[in-house]
Amino acid sequence: MTNDKQRIYSGDWKPLHPYTGSASTDLYYITLANKVLAAIRSIENDLAEDDYRKIDPSEQKELACILTAYFEDVISQTGIFQAFSRVYQQKYGKPLPFYSLDSDYTPGEINTEDIQFLIWHYHMQLNNLDIAYSPALDTFAAIAADVMELFEAEYETAPENEKLLHYLQPDEKEQHNLYALHARFLWLCTQSYLFSNNGYLLEDQAEALADEAKENGLEDQIPDMVNQLCNDFGFNQVTEFMRLTPPHWLAEVLGPESPLYDSLRSMGHKYTGYYRYEGGDDRVTRFRHIATDRVLEVTNRSLVGLPRDMKNPSLILRTGFVEWNGEWWLSGQITSYEDSEDLIGQITGDDDEYNLFEPDDDLPDDEQQIILTDILSTTVGEEGQTLDESDTAWQAMLSDEIGEDFFIAQVEAGQIKGLQFYDDPGRLLLDNLRFVTEYIKR
Question: What is the DSSP string of 60-107?
Fold first, then answer.
């Protein structure tokens, strides 16, 4: 008899969906997810407990929900995976990395290779990229084949989730509301099946922020700080796929024919820092960034309902602004502070504030070379294990201090040797080097 904890219920399925309550299709997809789970479990049960490919029962449930959500996405024509395939096609000339695709592969429909790719993606994110899983693993292929059989049997009769489709199609009023759009692209890139690991990343950042606030006696400010973190994350987070941010991905999901496509694709970085009110008129309000002296003219449409004291020039404001459709918009929490020499000194002496509007740059090549040489010369791991060329090459890939372009140049120059997926001595990683490097070094 199957243990209740080994089945998928509404509480397992709903976190991958943006709405409260239930959709009329939920029962159908939960039932299908349990069939997918059974297919996954039958293959997982044949793996030894110490097999690096094996995932535990709770992870099997997560994977089953993710694969079923992919099927729901295709059936409902919400366009999440289709957006990924289209962007990848534009950049790399085919709709999917890693696999040799024949005429049976059809973007926008269910494909075995899509399922196998999602299984690889789940395993990579599950282990924080520490294991270089091969996308061609036999267990991944076996699960994908069995799940595809289930999906093919349901393809013609599966119901569309109109509630999900409606959520991802902003109405006329919402198209002009930055905050309504923010809610959608934040959900898309933190909770949808394709980007759900970013939600765990955001949770980790929020917990770390809360712990730091407690250490500094700022418990009462934690809700505001977390609110700001989530708001910034939605605008600025670089995703694991093609270095696109959440607004850019919502644009691609809506498609080039959407009236929002160009404005979302061109949405800029959000700059959260310390500002002072500088005056304004009936169209804009000006705020001066204290550390850099830069003045932003912010549309008054983004200031409706905000506290009056934000226009008090004697106060220092911590808030954020993002450029959208050629205008600066205020977004997120506003915290006000009494002006003081100590606070001004802290602000002007903060490198993050001073460099707020500057793009993040890689370290100079000579410094990256020193770091790379040190990584490649390491022969013993943290647990005393012997490291070979493939191990150190992967560690170099994971290093935050080695930039994407520098890393690829060193691989192509032959300085980084042995770069491959684990237990896959072919060229699968090298033939997809740019994609995998972007995937890791985002």
Answer: HHHHHHHHHHHHHHHHHT--HHHHHHHHHHHHHSSSSSSSPP-TT--T
276 has which bridge partners?
288
DSSP 426: S
Helix, strand or coil, per DSSP, at residue 336? strand
Task: Provide CB contacts within 8 A for 363, sequence distance 6+.
Answer: 371, 401, 403
Instruction: Give per-residue burial for 21-54: e unless 16+ CB within 10 Å, then b.
Output: eebebbebbbebbbbbbbbbbebbeeeeeeeebb
pLDDT tier, 216 (very low <50, low <70, confident <90, very high otherwise): confident
**CB atoms < 10 A from the CB of 10, how many?**
10
Handedness of CA 53, 57, 59, 62 (dihedral sign): positive
* 94: pLDDT strictly greater than 70: yes
Alpha carbons 57 and 39: distance in angstroms, whole number:
13
What the block records as the tokens of 248 is 């850019």
Pick the CATH number of 268-354 from 3.80.10, 2.40.128, 3.40.50, 2.40.50: 2.40.50
Give me the torsion for CA of 207, 209, 214, 220, rounded to 10°: -100
Separation of alpha carbons 182 and 249, rounded Å: 12
Rounded to an integer, the average pLDDT of 178-195 is 96
Contact 410, 382 (CB under 8 A): no
Residue-wise over 198-230: b if at least 16 C-beta within 10 A, else e?
bbebbeebbeeebeebeeeeeeeebebbbebbb
* Residue tagged 């366009």 (tokens): 79
With a threshold of 0.90, does the pTM exceed it? yes
**Numbered ranges of CATH 2.40.50 in the chain:** 268-354
| Residue 114, both tokens | 């899509």
